[in-house]
Amino acid sequence: xxxxxxxxxxxxxxxxxxxxxxxxxxxxxxxxxxxxxxxxxxxxxxxxxxxxxxxxxxxxxxxxxxxxxxxxxxxxxxxxxxxxxxxxxxxxxxxxxxxxxxxxxxxxxxxxxxxxxxxxxxxxxxxxxxxxxxxxxxxxxxxxxxxxxxxxxxxxxxxxxxxxxxxxxxxxxxxxxxxxxxxxxxxxxxxxxxxxxxxxxxxxxxxxxxxxxxxxxxxxxxxxxxxxxxxxxxxxxxxxxxxxxxxxxxxxxxxxxxxxxxxxxxxxxxxxxxxxxxxxxxxxxxxxxxxxxxxxxxxxxxxxxxxxxxxxxxxxxxxxxxxxxxxxxxxxxxxxxxxxxxxxxxxxxxxxxxxxxxxxxxxxxxxxxxxxxxxxxxxxxxxxxxxxxxxxxxxxxxxxxxxxxxxxxxxxxxxxxxxxxxxxxxxxxxxxx
Length: 433
Prior knowledge:
By secondary structure, the protein is mainly alpha-helical.
C-alpha cells in the first residue's frame, strides 16, 4: 500500500516539519543574548546564565517527553495527527515567547518564556516521533542514507534561522525574528492536513503493541545505544545552543555565525553518510565522529580569535554532523521489531541529554565567572572589558569540561565496532528478531 502513496510528498513534508523545528531552535539560540539582556539580567543578574540555559533546556525536556509518549502511541495518534500538532505548537510556542514581556512582569515573564520554549519542544518531539518511523517505513532498504538526507535539513533549518537571527538583528527586535518561525509552521499544518499517510507500521509488520514495547527489554544491548545517544546529543546540541552566548565576545565574532558554518558542514556531509557507513559500518563512523567531536570541543575551549574558532568549529562540526541520524539508523536496523518505540526512546535520550546538560553548562559558567571575579560582590561591581574578560574565561571552562563526553563514546563505539566486525546488517537484525 505504501507504493501507492506519494512518497516524495511525504518525505518532503517530513523535511519541512524538521526544518521548522531546526529554524526555531537556531532562532532561539540567536535571540538568547537579547532575551537575557532585556528580560533576565534585570530580574536575576547572578543567576541569569543558569536561568537562560534552563529556559532553552525546557524545549529539550518537552521534546524528550513528547517523543517518548508519541512514539509509543504513534499508531493511535497517527502520523498526520503528530505533524498537525507539531505545526500548531510551532505557532503557539513562539507567540508566548514574543508576547511575554507585554502581558506580564517580573518572574512571570520568565515563566511565559519557559512555557513558550516548552511548547516549541513539544512540536519538535511530535515531529521526530512521526518523521523517523515514516522514513524507515517508506525506505526500508535504504534507511541510513534516507534518514541522513532527511536530517540534513535539520542543519538546513539551523542555517536559515541562524542567518535570519544575525542579519535581521539590526532591523528587527528579537521578538520579530522569533516570529519568523510561524511561517513554515503554518505551511506544515496546511500540507499535513491535505496529505495521505501510510497505514500504521505495526499493521504492516504484524508486530503487536506488547511485542514492540517488550523488544527493547528483551534485548538489553539496546540500552547501550540509549546511553550512547544521550552522550552524542550532549556533544552536538548543547554546545550549539550555548555557542553564541559563550563564545561571541572571546573570539571576536558572533557565535551564531559559527553555528551556521557548522550546520552548513552538516548539511553537505549528511548526504554522504550512508556511503561512509557502508564502508566502515555505523559504529565505525560513530567512533570517528566521537574522536573529532572531542578534539573540536577542546579546541573551542581554547579559541581566542575568529580563525581559531572557525578551525575548532570545523573539527567539532565534522565530528557531530552524522551522529543523530546514524544513531537512529543503527537502532532501526538492529531492533526492527521495536518500531517507532525504539526510535522514540533513543530520540528521547538525546533530548534529555540537552535538558540536563544545558543547565549544567549555565551553572558551570555562572560558578566560574563568580570564582574568576573573586566572589558575587566583586562580579556585581564589574563592568565593561573587565566583566567580558571574566565571562570569556568562564566560557572556556564550560566547553573544556564538555569535551569529556565524546571521549567516553570512543570506548563505547570502539567496543561495538570490534564486536560487530564481519556481521551483516541482516545478521544484526536477526539477533534482535
